[in-house]
Specification:
- The chain is α+β, with helices and mostly antiparallel strands.
- It folds into two domains: about 60 residues, Winged helix-like DNA-binding domain superfamily/Winged helix DNA-binding domain (Arc Repressor Mutant, subunit A); about 160 residues, Chorismate lyase-like (Chorismate lyase).
- Helices cover about 30% and strands about 30% of the residues.
- The strands form three sheets. The chain has a six-stranded antiparallel sheet. It has a two-stranded antiparallel ribbon with strand order 1-2. A two-stranded parallel ribbon has the order 3-10.
- The radius of gyration is 21 Å and the shape is elongated.
- One of its GO terms (molecular function) is DNA binding.
- InterPro entries: Bact_HTH_transcr_reg (IPR050679), Chorismate_lyase_/UTRA_dom_sf (IPR028978), Tscrpt_reg_HTH_GntR (IPR000524), UTRA (IPR011663), WH-like_DNA-bd_sf (IPR036388), WH_DNA-bd_sf (IPR036390).
- This is GntR family transcriptional regulator.
- It comes from Nocardiopsis kunsanensis.
- One of its GO terms (biological process) is negative regulation of DNA-templated transcription.
Length: about 250
Amino acid sequence: MVNGELDLSSGVPLYRQIKDLLRTEISGGNADPQRPMTEAQLLDRFDVSRAPIRQALKELTDEGYVYRRQGKGTFPVPGVRVDRPADVRPGALHQHLVDSGLHPTSAVSGIERVEPPARIRDRLGVEGHERLLHFTRVISVEDEPLVEADVYVRAPEDFAPTAAALEDQGSAFELLEKGFGITLDRAEHEAWAAPATTEHAAVLGVESGSPVLVIDTVFFTVGGFPAGWRSAVHRAEEFRYRFVTSG
């Protein structure tokens, strides 16, 4: 390959190519966490100026893929790091992971129509004996479990996606929009740290009682109709949620 691992004819900025290559190596466990990534080493490897090297390392540091030790250098952080920006639209986390080059997969189970628990019914304004589509989804990135989500969707009775369809699409709301024209407009989130239950620890591959990030979300369609609820439990050390406030 020309110029080592870089493609000078691709039009992609050099710093971005370097960043993507290093991120893939770190996420895949191919970078030694005990060996620093020095500018000299990377200059020799990629045969470029210092500017793209420094920009790549800065962005990798900002995103949690590397960290700097005073007087020691820049070291890889093993494992997958997922950064969710504030502008990811509701229900589109799976597509964001795809767009980020992280190769997500999901496993869906327990698809059923049920009357939701009282706290979810109250939050969504469900009355009477309305039944919601319910299922559990586990999202993995680079074959490592990241999120376990418990999902309830208010949808027409004839909306009955299979597990395969939900796994392929990555979002029940994307399927709902394609099939019924029901579009999400916004979402409200509540997030907190909690100890992993035995069940969540088993699914996410962490120790029982270790910290996890819990995010409960209510989804709203255009017009403000509450369309669904999700409680997502994340491996806390590998997920960063970015948000924006205004006033």
